[in-house]
């Protein structure tokens, strides 16, 4: 089939270029604009990358209009109901669901790497007791870049794989240690006889004086939330990891950059912000007041957990979590959860409001996730940390994909310069 092209001509100077249209397995056609500057001396402008593809990727597919999310082709609804987090991690990293043997081997490898170096533990002491756990995560995960020199040749695929395994395995240990530091309790070592999520709950809630038996309902809920948060193609934090990694930077430092980006309330920080917002609203009688604030352009307040750059009808993850909220809260004997009732009512009222309807603003993944985390005993300031543990899988999958992509080049956006034109230096005495 002939290549589809679009010819672009600047009538003012007759310069012209042929822009070819590229296609993936699904999704809209993409115009290759790489010849635009070469042939016509023109850049493109797309703040926030609303219509710009930055790479080829075979990991995750989203159709925002239809509310579709698939990991490696598998619908998120099927994975959420039938899989577990480490199986999904394998799928995202390697492209296929594991066989029984592959799955067991992968679990063993991840278990093998759960401990952190004893010297790393002392890094936590440098943080004040009330440091936000995400601040600790940025610092401590970044500091991993100073360890593991034996396997840091990023041009060696095996080294890259070992780094990926280390990050997935150590993230829960570092996350739980951030929490323990925050509440002034001793760190709890990982228990490798437990599965990934049960081990995390153990490190969070056991103490040296008292063991903790993870509740199977809590373990199942955490597996589900981790699956839903594991990847979301070229979102802000993943793009941050890719851009940092494009300079061939240390992978642990790149993941720390991803954590920093995730922390923002417009991204993963929203789950903490939603719970804080629901607590502030407090009661259904206050809903109208807060909706009015969200609609007021002179007020910086936004309805947290609402709206998404890509999903314009519904976020399939939010639909799954809303359903699971009912099950989890009932099974954890927390079925009279006033914040969940408030969230349901807030969603109902917002979805009937012209402001939200016209702008296609729907609940996103974070509108309900905090309610489940709270029911599991996870404090608000750990919600985004939970997101970071899960998204680490997506980050490393994208980093590995990028590092093996022959078209990979250092990321280097251009700009529209709006500063002063050339002018002469004025000696201080003359200013
Ligand atoms: N509350 C009130 N108004 C909103 C909201 C909201 N939550 N979200 C968007 N809007 C309005 C904007 O004011 C804008 O209105 P206008 O056209 O009259 O100016 C319009 O809807 C479009 O919003 P943008 O900010 O341009 O949309 P964008 O795609 O850039 O941002 C974002 C998406 C950041 C998610 C935004 O909807 C938001 O801030 N939501 C709240 C934070 C949140 O829940 N973030 C989590 C996202 S999911 C995730 O990262 C895992």
Task: Report what the structure shows.
A three-stranded antiparallel β-sheet has the order 1-2-3. A three-stranded antiparallel β-sheet has the order 4-5-6. Helix 6 (133-143) packs antiparallel against helix 7 and helix 12 crosses helix 17 (366-375). Strand 5 and strand 6 form a beta hairpin. The protein is mostly helical and 431 residues long. It is globular. The protein is 49% helix and 6% strand. The structure holds acetyl coenzyme *A. Acetyl coenzyme *A (ACO) binds at residues 48, 266-268, 270, 294, 302-309, 359, 361, 364-366.
Jot down its keywords.
about 50% helix; binds acetyl coenzyme *A; three-stranded antiparallel beta sheet; 18 helices; single chain; about 5% strand; about 425 residues; mainly alpha
Poorly predicted runs of 5 or more residues: none
Report the C-alpha radius of gyration, rounded.
Answer: 24 Å
| Overall residue-averaged pLDDT value | 94
Which ligands does the model contain, each kind named once? acetyl coenzyme *A
Shape: globular
**Count of alpha/pi helices:** 18
Q: Report the sheet with the most strands, covering strand number, pairing sense and barrel closure.
A: 3 strands, antiparallel
Kindly estimate the percentage of residues that lie in beta strands according to DSSP: 5-15%
Proportion of residues in helical segments = 40-55%
The strand line-up of the biggest sheet is: 1-2-3
Q: What are the secondary-structure elements, in order, as H or E? A: EEEHEEEHHHHHHHHHHHHHHHHH
Straight-line distance between termini: 66 Å
* Secondary structural class: mainly alpha
Number of DSSP E strands? 6
